[in-house]
Amino acid sequence: MSLSPKEISSLVDECLNNFLAAEQVKLALEKIDIHTGRIESSNTESIYLQNVIKYLCRHNRLEEWLNAVADDGFPFAERYLECITQMSSKDKQFGSYRIISRVGQGTIGNVYLAHDENGHRVTLKLITKEIVSKFSNKEELLQRFQRESNYAMLLNHPHIVRTVDSGNIDGNLYIASEYIVGKSLEDLLKDSSPLPVKQAVTIISDVLLGLEEISKNNLVHRNLKPSNILLSADGMAKIVDLGLLRSVSSDATLLTRTGNIMGTPAYMSPEQINAEKDIDIRTDLYSVGVIFYLCLCGDLPFQGSSALDIVEMHLKSPVPEPSVSINKKLLDFIRHLMEKDRSLRPASPKDALKILASIHEDPESTFAIGQLGTISRIPISVEKQAPDATYSGTGTIVTQNVLTPTSTASPLQSTKLVCEVEGVQHRLFVYAKDSLQIGRNSIEKEQQDICLRPLPAKGNEDGIRQISGKHFKIFVQNGSAYIQDLGSTVGTTLDGRQLIANEAVKLPALSTAVVANVIHLEISVIDNSPADTIGEIGSCRCEPSVFIRRKNNTPHHSYLLLVGKAALKWEDASFCAMEKGSNEILNVNNTLWLSGSVCGDGKAEPIGEGYSFSNQNSRFSFGVIRAEDQK
Per the database record, which ranges form the FHA domain (predicted)? Predict the structure, then answer.
């Protein structure tokens, strides 16, 4: 139903007359934040007013209504008009980003849903120059912001929300990260707390995997809490806010010169409270222990009437017995993570994950340590979102395809696709992620995705030794694909050019790489437009994918780094991948889905272990990638 400004004004009149006295109402409405338009009040009449304003925003009628009621006893209308004018003239276009809507508010900045110049959805966090001006040492703040945002852009992991861009536009700081369809752990706990044990263990396992990647890059999050853990629609946990907003607001210490608490005392380790200079990843493990306690028990371990009371308990009090019954081994694990002396905690997230996997009692659950294994997830309920339009790069807007999932089965994050022809197994190894590390080491080794060796091993010993354990990697970032030699002994060439160690080189549409003068790879970069959305599960990204085919030695092995989507084709008794085709494989929230003729129009099927289909007199089967598959 569409309401006129007069009708909306009457509704607000009725709201105000039926609740608080006029003076109290005016006091509540004066709390409007002029920079954000947000009403900083939980009073019933303010909540009602916010709902009215949301309605008007959806129908592009807000400014019209505010003009209509500004002179009728609504002093707040003028303030809102000023806010809307600012938003219209400034915030809708910020640099190369077009802001769609405000989706949240951080400690010192607002969070927006935006589109980049290619039409990709991103989460954009803005710290305006007005806020920056409030800091006494602005130059140091700006330098620290740039340094730490650069660190964050180095992290590329399924359990970390990817930072894609950051910078300073006219004194306004911004951070752009991938957009995740889902909700925060904080929101999930508001809806259902405590969590089922299986779900809590899975979420904590995901967080530990993300922290392991952070630790390997010699970084520490230092502000881990439920609001900084996002859950995609399939239940996968991702760490967000990699110390950026927190760092620029609180520097590296907990206490300011005036002794005020900065940060989130409920989740802080003793060494962080004491502002020790040599804080390491074990401070994040302490926070994980607090979060795990909250997930399983429904309450924080330490609660007090003030922040200082809570700080005191973190420093001196043992972890209390929970008010609900939980598994003793899991409680002991939490206490292990929350040892006051960090030397008594697990040494790393990987060690903590191994302990957790060993004590978990559900025989049907397995845990991904490194790159292997699967996690049994519980999907979460998220608000259904209309698919955005995506920019095609040709000046036109292309609407996303919306597909219906055919099953609630859990899809794999990587898979081995096999087709047998005349007794030879042709294998395509598919990875739903942003980067692949490739070398001689077995995939059982830490952080190794592809074991690249001349086959068979017997008779090819010299060639195997030529390839370094961690030889090179291929990754996708900010709409482009790159190859990078990892300091290998013999080296890597791309189209005859020797790659400089640890220097990323952009991949052309088609190229040939030679690894250690032994194995030749044909590399194709596959564009992805438009992006597809699968029901409420999420969307694949408008990012390129990379198809890699062995040209010599075991040419029936090929690899696909699937960042967005790619069409699969069986041609000349081998796999190939291209931009469009009758059957497409999709990466949605780092899980694998299939769409096209084998699924039916408008449908998508999760690719799980044992999934198979037939096409053109050939049978294709999917399975888990095992170490022996590539040796």
Answer: 436-499
For 330-377, write each residue's pLDDT tens digit.
999 999 999 999 999 999 999 999 899 888 644 443 333 333 233 445
Domain range 389-630, CATH architecture = Sandwich (2.60)
| Domain 184-383 CATH class label | mainly alpha
Rounded Cα gap, residues 397 and 629, in angstroms: 42
pLDDT digits (tens, 9 = 90+) for 496-547: 899 998 888 989 888 999 999 999 999 999 876 566 778 767 777 778 899 9
CATH topology of domain 92-179: Phosphorylase Kinase; domain 1 (3.30.200)
Helix (H, G, I), strand (E, B) or coil at 602: strand
C-alpha span between 42 and 34 (Å, rounded): 17
Q: Is the pTM of this model over 0.85?
A: no
CB within 8 A of 316, min separation 6: which ones?
340
Taking CA atoms, 110 is separated from 36, 51, 151, 239, in Å, by 8, 20, 22, 18
Rounded distance between C-alpha atoms, residue 179 and residue 177, angstroms: 6
Tell me whether domains 92-179 and 184-383 share a fold.
Answer: no
Q: Which two tokens stand for residue 594?
A: 């299939």
Distance of CA 28 to the CA centre of its chain: 37
Q: Name the token pair of 67.
A: 């003009």
